[in-house]
Amino acid sequence: MKAWLRGCMLLLGLLCSAWVHAAQPAVAVYYGSRASLSELSLYDIAVIEPGHGYDPVKFRQQAPGSELYAYASVAEVQPGRDYFGKIPPQWKLARNGAWQSVVLDQTPAQWPAFFADEVIAPLWAKGYRGFFLDTLDSYRLAARYDETAQQEGLVRVIETLHQRFPGIRLILNRGFEIVPRVRDKVQMVAAESLYQGWDANLKRYVKVPEQDRAWLLQQLQTIRERDGLQVLSIDYVPPHDRATAREAARRIEQLGFIAWVSDAGLQTLGVGAVEPVARRVLILYNGDEHRSINTVAAHRFLEMPLNYMGYIADYADVREPLPKDVSRDRYAGVVSWFGGAVPGMRARPLRQWLTGQVEQGMPLLVLNTLGFVEDRAMSRLLGMRSTETLPALPMRQARQAPMVGLEIQPSEPGHDYEGWELAPQMASQSRLLLAFEDAKKRRFVSAAITPWGGFVLAPYLVADVPGTGQPRWVIDPFALLRESLRLADFPVPDVTTENGRRLLLAHVDGDGFPSRAELPGAPFAGEVLRRDVLERYRIPHTISVIESEISPQGLYPQWSPQLEDVARRIFAMPHVEIASHSYSHPFIWDPATAAPKDSEEGKEVDLHLQIPGYEMDLHREITGSVDYIRERLAPAGKPVQVFLWSGNTSPNTEALAMADAAGLLNMNGGDTSITRSNPSLTKVRSWGLVKGGHVQVYAPITNENIYTNLWQGPFYGFERVIETFEMTDAPRRLKAVDIYYHSYTASKQASLKALHKVYQWAQARRLHPVYGSEYIRKVQDFYEFAVGRDARGWRLRGPGRLRTLRMPPSLGVPVLAGSEGIAGYVQGVDGHYLHLASGVGHLAVSAPADGAGQAMPQPYLVDANARLSQWLPQADGSLRFALQGHMPLELRMFLPPGCSLSPLGASRSMAVDTASSSDPQGIRSFRTTETRAQFQAQCGAR
Which tens digits make up the pLDDT trace of 724-735? Predict the structure, then answer.
C-alpha cells in the first residue's frame, strides 16, 4: 500500500512539474541590436537593451501575448548612460573593472526616486511595462558596506517602482535575500551560471564548479518553493557551440526552471524554451568581378533556391573587412562563389576568416574555385592536398552522384581542369558527387559533401549550353544546399500564395503611354490600355506613368491635356492602384556601376528620356515624380505608394533608402523568364535583393520586352509568359503569377491579342488576386519573418502581411488540434500550404507518417481568393470568420459530417457548388457575388 501511495505521489509530482513547465513563459535575454521584432516575438518575454531603439508599443501590436522587457541596472551604471552625470559623487561606492562600470550606493534616501525618475520613467513613457533589474548584489564589490542597509535600499527601490508605475512587472537578477520581502511585487527571479558560465576577469567560458552549482541550485529551489516565483536560469557558452547550449538548456529545464543559454555578452539569440531557426546564409563574393551586386553569380543563380527553402542571403564583398559576428543563431552556413582569384592583399585575411569559421563548426560551401592558394593549416582542416597538382591526361569519370547532371551533363575535363585531391581520411568521410581519375590512377574530386560542408568546382556548377550562351545547372542546387549546409526542413514563409491559392497581380510600366496605337483613329496607347484592357479585366492592377511623357513640361506638351486626362481616368478606376515609373526613365540608377563613359556600354549612364537641360537627379526621379502624380493626376484621397524601377532596374542603396524614406513601396527587376526554349532554373530569380538594409523587391515574372526580343518582334511573343507561369508552378511553386508589361503593349494588335490571351489564361485558374503593393509587403515580410521550435511544435511570427507557410513533405500533414492561429491548409505539389489567421501562429508537431489528422476533426479553410480579416473559433466548437478580397468571393472549406457553413449579417446570398469529384471527402466549395463577407461554420452535437 505504501509503495502504491509513493507511486501515486511520484506520478502526481511529475504531472505537476510538467504542468508548471508548460505554463512557464519562453524568455530571451538579448542585448544585441540585430534581431528583428519578429525574431524577438518568438518569446513570451524578450529582455532587451532599450538603447537599441526597439519599440515596445509596435512590438505589442505585432505580437499580442509577447512583451519586451527593458534592461535596467540598479546598483551599477556605465559612464555612457544619459543619467550618469546627474549622480552625486558620494553615491559612487566602487568600480567594477570587469565591466567598466561604477557601483552605486543603495542607501541614500533620494536614490529610489532618482532611479524611478531617471531610469524607469523615460522607458515607461516609451511603452515599456516590464523591466529586468540587474546588478542587485553589486554593492558587495565595495571595500566597505552595510549589508542590511543596502538591502533596505533595494527594497525601497522596488516599492517605489510599484507605487509610481501601477502594473509594472519586474524580473530580479539575483537579490536572493530581499526576495521574501518583495515577492508580491516580482514576476520572476533570474540567476546566472548554473552549469556554464563566463569568467569576466579571465575573459573565458568556464564550467561552473559543483560546489557553486549546488549552492545556487538551493537558492533557486527555495525561491520557487518558498516564494512561489518562476525562476530564470541564464548560462553562457560560446556562440558557435549550439550543442553545448542545447544540453545546458535541457538540464536547466529538467529542474523546472526557465532556461536561457547564450553568449557572454548576450549578443545572440540563444537556446531556451524556443530555439530560433537560423534563416540566413552568408555569401562571399569578389566585387572586382561585378559592377553591381545585382549581377553577382550567387545572387543570379543561388539566391532563388535559398529563398525557396526559406533562407535569406546576406552578402560580403571580400575586398572589405569580413564580418566578425557570423554566429549560429542567425546563420545556417557560409557560401563562397568566386570567378577566379581574389585580390592578393585579401587572400590571407580571407583564408584566416574561413579557417576560423570551419574550426567553429560553421558549414562552408565552396563554389567554382577556392579563390586563393591554401596554406598547410587550411589544407589540413579541409582534408585536401595541394590544389596546384596537375592531373595527367587523359582522365575518366570515376563517380557521378544522382544530383549531378540536373540540367546539363558534366563535360569531360579539359587541359585547364582543376580538381582537389582529398586526403584518405577526408575522402572516406565524404560523399563524392563528381570525381575523375587521371592516367596515373590519382583521383581528383570536383564536387563532394564533406564533414565541414562541401564544394563544387568549375566547370561543374553552372555551365553554358554550347553555341547558345544559355546557362544550366550541372548540379541540383536544392540538394547541394541542403546537404552541404545541413539545412533542416522547417515551415517556410512563402510569398507566392495566400489562403491556399497562388497569387495573381498585374502591373504596368508607363513606357509608351503617348504611343499611337495601330488602330483606327491612332489612339494613344494609354487610352487603348484603359478601354480595351482595364475596363475588361477588373482584377487589381498597379498602373504607372512616366512624368516627362505626359506632363505639360515634358516631351509632348501639345498632347499633355489629353494624356493627363487618360491617366486621371485610369487612376480613378476602383481596381487600379497608382504608381510612378520615374520622371525621365533612367536606364542606370547607380552611376558607380556603369562602364567607362568613353566605352559604347558606358553611354548607358546618360540614357534617359531627353529632356532639355535636365541632368539625372534621384530626388526628381523618385519623390518629384510621385509629387507630380499626387498633385495633378491622383483622385483626392487616393494614395500613390508604389515606385516601379526603370531601365536596368538596379537601384543603389541611396535610391532604395530614398524610396523607403518617402514611404514608397518599390518593385521591378529580377527578370524571371524560364520558358520551354530555355527551361533552366537559372532563369528564375530570387524574391528580391537587400542592399544596405533596404529591400529591392523583384517583379515575380519579367515583362513582354524579354518575350518580344526587346520589342523587336514577334510582337505576339508575350503569350509565352504562360509557359513561365506554368514552369514556375510545378514541380515547385517558385513564383506568383504576374501579368507585367508596358503601356506600349497596347499599341500593336499582335501584342494586344497576346495580352488578352494571357489575361484569359489567368481568369481560367483558381488564383488569389492582389495589388502590387500587397505583394511587395509580403516580400518585405519574408525578410522579417521568424520561425522557432519549441517542445510542442513551431512558433511562427511575422509583421502580418505574409500569411502563408509551406510545409515540406518531410514535416507531414499539419495538425490543427493544439495549433493556434492556423486557419487551415491545402496540399500542393511541393508540400502543404498553411494559412495563418494573422502574423502570429503556433503549429503543433505532426509525425510525417501521421496523415490521420485529429480524433475530432474541426472545420478549416482549404483555400480562398481573399484575405482573412477575422478568424474566431468559438467555445461551442463553431467558427466565425471573415474574408475580404478584390473579386467576388470563392472559398473551399473542410466541413466534417454534421457541419455546415452559412453567411452572417448582410452576407446573405451564397452559392454552394456541387462537390467536385477531385475534392477529398468533406471539402465543399462556396461562392458569393460580394468581395467581403462574414461566415459561420456550425457543427451539430458531436
Answer: 999 999 999 999
In contact, 698 and 669? CB cutoff 8 Å: yes
Instruction: Give the pLDDT of residue 11.
Output: 39
Amino acid at 36: S
Alpha helices in 741-889 (DSSP H): 749-763, 772-782
Identify whether the C-beta of residue 661 lies closer than 8 Å to the C-beta of residue 655: no
Non-local CB neighbours of 435 within 8 Å, separated by 6+ positions: 397, 398, 399, 419, 443, 444, 445, 446, 448
* Residue spans of alpha helices (H) in 166-302: 179-182, 210-227, 242-254, 297
Spatial distance between the Cα atoms of 688 and 783, rounded to a whole number of angstroms: 10
For 319, residues 6+ apart whose C-beta sits below 8 A from its C-beta are 286, 287, 288, 343, 346
3-state secondary structure of 182: helix
For the whole model, what pTM was predicted? 0.94
Percentages helix, strand, coil for the chain, rounded to the nearest 5? 30, 25, 40
- Are the C-beta atoms of 334 and 484 separated by less than 8 Å? no
Helices and strands, counts by H and E, the chain: 25, 51
Instruction: In whole angstroms, give the CA distance from residue 406 to residue 496.
Output: 24
In sequence order, which ranges of 136-232 are alpha helices (DSSP H)?
147-164, 179-182, 210-227
pLDDT of residue 920: 72
For residue 5, the model assigns a pLDDT of 41
Strands 840-844 and 879-884: unpaired
Residue carrying the nine cell digits 507518417: 849
Cβ contacts of 511 within 8 Å, gap of 6 or more:
546, 549, 581, 585, 646, 742, 743, 744
Average pLDDT over residues 236-249: 96
d(CA 420, CA 455): 10
926 sits in which H/E element: strand 923-927
Q: Where are the alpha helices (DSSP H) in 72-228?
A: 111-115, 121-125, 147-164, 179-182, 210-227
Residue 593's CB: how many other CB atoms inside 10 A? Answer: 17
Q: Is-contact 864 883, C-beta < 8 A?
A: yes
- Arithmetic mean of pLDDT, 850-865: 74
User: Cβ atoms within 10 A of the Cβ of 214, count?
Assistant: 10
Summarize pLDDT for 761-772 with one digit per residue, the tens.
999 999 999 999
Confidence bin at 256 (pLDDT 50/70/90): very high
pLDDT reported for residue 2: 44
Q: DSSP assignment, residue 485?
A: T
Residue 596, SS3 per DSSP: coil
**String of DSSP letters for 426-477:** HHHHSEEEEEEE-TTS-EEEEEEEETTEEEEETTSSEEEPTTT--EEESB-H
pLDDT digits (tens, 9 = 90+) for 524-564: 999 999 999 999 999 999 999 999 999 999 999 999 999 99
Q: Could you give the 3-state DSSP secondary structure of residue 863?
A: strand
Tell me the pLDDT tens digit for each residue of 8-23.
Answer: 433 334 334 433 444 7
- Cα three-residue angle 214-216-220, rounded to 5 degrees: 115
**pLDDT-derived band of residue 916, with 50, 70 and 90 as boundaries?**
low
Residue 80, pLDDT above cutoff 50: yes
CA–CA distance, 68 with 61 (Å, rounded to integer): 12
In sequence order, what are the residues at sequence separation of 6 or more whose Cβ sits closer than 8 angstroms to the Cβ of residue 585? 511, 546, 548, 549, 608, 609, 646, 647
Q: What confidence category does residue 387 fall into, taking pLDDT thresholds of 50, 70 and 90?
A: low
First CA to last CA across the chain, in angstroms? Answer: 41
Contact 352, 362 (CB under 8 A): no
Q: Positive or negative CA dihedral for 593, 596, 597, 603?
A: negative
**Of residues 514, 516, 496, 513, the one with CA closest to residue 504:** 496
DSSP symbol at 132: E
